[in-house]
Amino acid sequence: MENLGFGxxxxxxxMGLVFAxxxxxxxxxxxxxxxxxxxxEEIAEGAPPAPPVRVIVADAFDLEPEVVAAITIAxxxxxxxxxxxxAPAMRSAKPGSQLYASRWLAAGRTRQTRGNVPxxx
Amino acid sequence: MHDYLTRLREMREKALLGGGQDKISQxxxxxxxxxxxxxxxxxxxxxxxxxGALATHDITEFGLDSQRFPGDGVVTGFGRINGRRVAVFAQxxxxxxxxxxxxxxxKICRVQDLAIESGIPLIGLNDSxxxxxxxxxxxxxxxxEVFMRNVLASGVIPQISVILGPxxxxxxxxxxxxxxxxxxxxxxFMFLTGxxxxxxxxxxxxxxxxxxxxEAHSTLSGCTHLxxxxxxxxxxxxxxxxxxxxxxxxxxxPRITPYxxxxxxxxxxxxxxxxxxxxxxxxxxxxxxxxxxxxVLEIHPYFACNAIVGFARLDGYAVGVVGNQPMHLAGSxxxxxxxxxxxxxxxxxxxxxxIVTFVDTPGFLPGVEQEYGGVIRHxxxxxYGYSAATVPKISIVVRKAxxxxxxxxxxxxLRCDLNFAWPTGQIAVMGPDGxxxxxxxxxxKAAKDPVALEREFVQQYREAFFxxxxxxxxxxxxxxxxxxxxxxxxIRALEVLRTKVQLNPSRxxxxxxx
Lengths: 121, 514
What we know:
Chain A is mainly alpha-helical and 121 residues long. Chain A is 63% helix and 2% strand.
């Protein structure tokens, strides 16, 4: 019975300590929150109204939407032209490079064109 | 600075000016660029390496000894186009009208020889008043040297000629011997004999442009493959054309990174064929929907419009496309379209470009003019071209494939690898009306109501023969496919056929009907 009384006493002290610390923490956070709100209200009172949101992709460069549209079209046209020309950036394989990946094909081509070497002059 | 360096630099600077600043200004006033300006547009920046910049002629007659210009009217050398090595020559009209003499020939022949030996494409920019008369017969021999090398290079390296000014007399044969000819509208012309000679001989008045302008050659004669509105556009077309071609006949064209989904299926294809079988539709639209978006480059777009030939891409790979065009002459084959198709099939075969054929032709065009004009031998060229080609070949019977035209247009018997047909396909020896009149003539004649009986026989014939299933039953069609499946089907088929190797019997060369 003595052990039971001692256990209850220790439990009471422990829980009391935990709850006391939690109460202190809650009080600290409440004070910080109140201070933070006060500073935000001060800034809001002195600042100009926020500008309306504009959907401009490149607003970092301070460009007009028309300019951005023109640049976009130019980039797309350039990409299309480069693709049509099979420019290096657009190529997944150089001319002839796949041929040499297949020994069957490379040997076959040689057989197809054998004897067609242009004569030396 | 050392004297020898000063002298060299002075000579180089003089060479850069061609015929002089005045002549350059005159060239600009005509709306034309100089040879060097054209090469600067054509080649990658800083890639040009000139050969023979200081060469001059040694002619002293007719006052030519006082008219020596370094380079002698042509700029030749090597460079790169989109990183690909090419050999180039550009005739310089500012030097004695770009007239063609021995020195010019030697320079062009030099790059031709090196291009053949290096296995790289040759691009020629033509702007010449013709043979240098002061050199006499030597200038004719000079032409011969170039022509002979054009022939040696034929089928070995791609040769593209761009006509950017005059190209008259014997000079026309060099472009004609090359693979592709591009002309600029209004500023270029090409003919064997000019309007004055024609007037003297035949009495007919004709202007230079009417006779040999880009319009005439792109629509009537078929001597030019592509037309450009400006020199810049013409040079752009060279770059695009080159993108579908390999460096030489041993290699493959470049593949670009695929940008159009291979499994894309366009539902519009299922309804593009009109219900009424005589109603035309645009085969170009079919081609656009099947191949990679914006990848089609039509060759000869204004010549023999009853046939369509051109390059396109499938999953980034270059392919050659042939099709009948029902919008013109119902897609029938005639002399010009036969030449157009056969020439293109041989180009594709030479440069290892697979051929995809869309068939919708009611047959060869009937007519006395066609027969007298030799439609038999011209039509035979199509059969020759397809039969001799060893590249992957796939055909799709879209609608009509009738009679000899069916056989000619990449049929199974001409070593076509895969033959597809749409459910709208009509494969038969002849149309139902004609067939019934021959097969059932006696019964129709003896009938009480011949019209009704004929209609009944036509319907029977149509159900029995005028569809793709009979041909599929006999193995002449490998698969009847839904039209919207065409793109993925072609991509998968070409994936298998990419390593196809087929050999022809050994010989000096075949005899193509001509």
